[in-house]
Hints:
With 293 residues, the protein is mainly β. 6% of the residues lie in helices and 49% in strands. Strand 7 and strand 8 form a beta hairpin. It is globular, with a radius of gyration of 19 Å.
Amino acid sequence: xxxxxxxxxxxxxxxxxxxxxxxxxxxxxxxxxxxxxxxxxxxxxxxxxxxxxxxxxxxxxxxxxxxxxxxxxxxxxxxxxxxxxxxxxxxxxxxxxxxxxxxxxxxxxxxxxxxxxxxxxxxxxxxxxxxxxxxxxxxxxxxxxxxxxxxxxxxxxxxxxxxxxxxxxxxxxxxxxxxxxxxxxxxxxxxxxxxxxxxxxxxxxxxxxxxxxxxxxxxxxxxxxxxxxxxxxxxxxxxxxxxxxxxxxxxxxxxxxxxxxxxxxxxxxxxxxxxxxxxxxxxxxxxxxxxxx
Length: 293
């Protein structure tokens, strides 16, 4: 690294209610940080049945769900259904349209993160699709007190099998006490860190340590340095992506380039056309079980 990135801004993600009875800590997609190209939303969620995220639509971007504890059962109007558990990741391309539900699987509290990655105008109307990787299949390696799980991109000589339409790096680091992370990041990309556990010193070795639920926007440079100066393990996510550089028009779960496209999307959803045809007669098993009409 010739120019390590420094911390440009820092946010504490505070709890708020989303879905039906669920609690999320939103760091990207709130009023202080509406958009960090190409990232639209980052939620750290905590949900227990019967709360959850019942039937809802998406268009124009991708969702990345990474489970930390428990599990989430996903089902959609195409008939795709499955459960992701602790350590698993689901990379969903909503593309031209999907209606799905995400509900906690089993008793107890399910925790994880969901990242929304924008798609370029040329990819917004692609067919929906999924890439699901079980925890045991996620690329992982350890060296010099640092363990990395590579959700997307590459690190420490290993590479993720996930293919991203918007070039993206998604790394989960666990750092033993007094160890150091030095991770290259493409200089043209935007990047941030999100602390899950412990405390870390980011960017400048003499800066103050940062604890859980903090998002750190990283400035310009070709990499990042992180020190764990504490006596407890540090766990954080390092996420980066190539900026798309296009206008963003958003209405809740619909993300397009213009307000006209948003109006068209709302019409498509309400009229069950142009990708939403199957939504007309579909209801998730989760809603059926709850007796919702």
